[in-house]
Specification:
The structure holds two protein chains of two kinds. By secondary structure, chain A is mostly helical. Chain A is built from 16 helices and no strands. The longest helix of chain B has 18 residues. Classes of the chains: A mainly alpha, B alpha/beta. Chains A and B meet through helix 9 and helix 10 of A and helix 10, helix 11 and strand 18 of B. The complex binds adenosine-5'-diphosphate and magnesium ion.
Chain lengths: 374, 527
Amino acid sequence: MSAGGSDNLPWWVTGLLLPAINVGLALAVSALVILAIGEDPVGALGTMLRGAVGTGEGIGYTLYYATSLIFTALAVAIAFHGGLFNIGGEGQAYIGGLGVGLVCLALPGWPWWAALPLSVLGGAAFGALWAAIPGWLQAYRGSHIVITTIMFNFIASSLMVYLMVNVLIKPGQMSPESEAFSASMFLPMMADMMGAIGVEMDSSPLNFSLFLALLACVAVWAFIWHTRWGFALRATGANENAALYAGIDPKRVIVVTMALSGALAGLLGVNELHGVQHRLMLNFPAGLGFTGIAVALMGRNHPAGIIPAALLFGALYQGGTELVFDYPTISRELVVVIQGVVILFAGALEHMFRPALVRLFSRRPVAVSKPAGA
Amino acid sequence: MSAAPSPVSPAWAVELVGIDKRFGPVHANRDVTLRFSPSSIHGLVGENGAGKSTLMSILYGFYEADAGEILVRGKQVDIRTPQDAIRLGIGMVHQHFMLVETFTVLENLLLGHEGGPVLGPAMERARAQVRELERQFGLEVPLDALVSDLPVGVQQRVEILKALYRGAEVLILDEPTAVLSPPEVEQLFRILERLRQQGRTVLLITHKLKEIMAITDRVSVLRRGQVVAEFITADTDRQALADAMVGRKTSLSVDRAPARPGEVLLSARNVNVIDGRGVTTLKDACLNVRAGEIVGVAGVAGNGQSELLEVLSGMCRFDSGMITVKGQDINPSTKYDAADARRRGLAHVPEDRLKLAVIKEFPAHESAILGYHQDKSLSKGWRLNWKRVVAKTVSLMEQFDVRPPNPHLRTALFSGGNQQKLVMAREMEREPDILLVGQPTRGVDIGAIAFIHRQLVSLRDRGKAILLVSAELDEILALSDRILVMCDGEIVGELSAADATESRIGTMMAGIKDAPATQAVAEGVSA
Ligand SMILES: Nc1ncnc2c1ncn2[C@@H]1O[C@H](COP(=O)(O)OP(=O)(O)O)[C@@H](O)[C@H]1O
Ligand SMILES: [Mg+2]
């Protein structure tokens, strides 16, 4: 079922070679950009690589970013299979985080393992609500989902500023942050968990949420391809009229699909707030909701593709931070440019080299024993 | 393969020599040699999947042959793209039109031939040229109308005109009549005659042997990718063609005993549907369908038949009136969607296969459970039991002879006839008490038509109620025990099978009401 495309390319060509070519080309273009500002591209890219995967701490950070990206990319993927382009992951993650924060603030003194299911529920519910409204507007009022989800990103952002500055701010403090959650409910850090079983690991923000993200991958995969609901969702995404014929209510499916999508995006708050920041604050999604779109695109909207794509983008985030640190002439903006180039080649231009590869590989004899018929 | 006429003749418009084409394991064309003369209409028949479309797509530059040569007017040519074909004077009218719906007819004709950044002068030149073509071939189209506003028959004429405007000497038509009503078919044939008179070559692909007999000069039969027979049309008949297509003796008519109708299973009383623009698309529809009978609904496409099927099957709401399904009344406020209809034992084979009945992108086994995915027997707890779904699909494919019998192949890759057999299999499998069928054999080949007809009759004989909507009068006459005729959203009359003739139905289709017949409908309601 995961096999893609009408041309019969071997899986390793579409799954490994094509992404490798695209990423390679993206890095080559990035090297040219670095060269253009007068820095040494080999050294700079080397620093990025070392920063992302060269140290235990780097790897931890890479995985920590990847955790958030998995949530937001799954959100995009599930909507995609329902025929919906959800651009609103950023806002849904933001509001989902509010849900996580409110739950955590409401349970002082709870142990983390008891608080986690509730904070997951809070994040999912708030994210779901924030996405279901545009879904409802699309299904019943014909407002285009792309437009409404973008608008909802802005509304989410304004709403959060208002709440943080006027309502949730810790009294007697200048910066718009809430009271800290009780220390008892902080999610375990990966370094501590590994330490407990005797494995040495550098400390990083990587926390228990990674397991949650992997679990979400399995759940999304099972849901989309192995349940009746997933069938209805894919049928609606592929052909709304046929869905109607099949007794599926496409409008309902659209609203539910968006709610699920938003719920997944909302889980970003578990990683960022319940796992790392331990308080409600501003701007914690930090663009990861948008980057999730690129991750989903590159991962072909399939969990098995999203995991490696999230790792790649996690590495770019972390490597980029390292790069800015080491090279004073290279600014944060340049790192964004490099990420943009990767998105361009691996996402938007994903199919650029496909025809050439089809020509190269479809000449090979097809491994089928005998012609159909008889 | 019977030998083509002497190869020394220089007078061929197009020659295909030794064309071979494979799609992976499928051998779509095997060493096909065909020659077409100018000023002729050449028919190409064959069952679905025989390789007709592939062959024509090779000639038109959509696919490249693995082996073989193409000669145009005696010269060997290399056709790699449709542009090459157009340059060589080959034009094609596809089954699915390739027009920009939001453009006017003239803009569509000009598309790709704008001749510069400013449209104005080119438009005027084109208008003059097109008028000349219209006159020459008797092809009338409203040049300034939006394509989306035109009926299919006229859209098809636009396609033909487009090909001629680009200088087509050879015109390929791939199943052009599948979407047309009988009068539109007649108009098309008049145009094709004109083309022949003017020295053009027409290659006509169709399933309908009646049409082949009516208009072609020669006919070639393809079976499993090979040319198995060639005939001069005047020297052959439908039966011989049908036998050659299928490769064995076939029966063109359906054997059926008189119906033994039982109780009324489905009825509609004064059902009205008003669409979004306020137009009444279904007016006061009254009908009864009894157990053990086939009720045919005749009419030119677009006269309310689609709405009738959609309302009865729960796909669309109605505004007033009442429907009764197996004794249960449904009025406009009752919850009644397609799933409810299926639960009540009403199955539906819709008119538009690709738009409604299957999902092209899905593998066959997923299309094979569309509408029944909620069925408990296909699930294991919260999971769909794919193993069981695949096994079920394999058995459906076996029972209905779906080819290739591969449940994992993408639905779009099956030919229309095989998709239809899969849909029929899916809908008939659960022995529904009521079956609604729309255009069951549209775009389906002869072998499969007979098969589908036999299945419908045997379902009837098992005591089920069948409502059949078809634009093919032959089909209506061959299968129906009673015939309703629709015109302009209304059921304008009813005929018993014994009284029905093509001409009587034809008059009623034109909207001339048949007074005594409507009486019968009214009586039936009280039963
Ligand atoms: N693009 C394609 N890829 C794979 N198989 C194809 C493709 N096009 C056609 N076929 C197969 O080739 C055979 C011939 O198809 P086609 O030429 O469409 O038949 P026809 O037009 O006579 O119904 C069929 O078995 C069909 O499934
Ligand atoms: Mg065909």
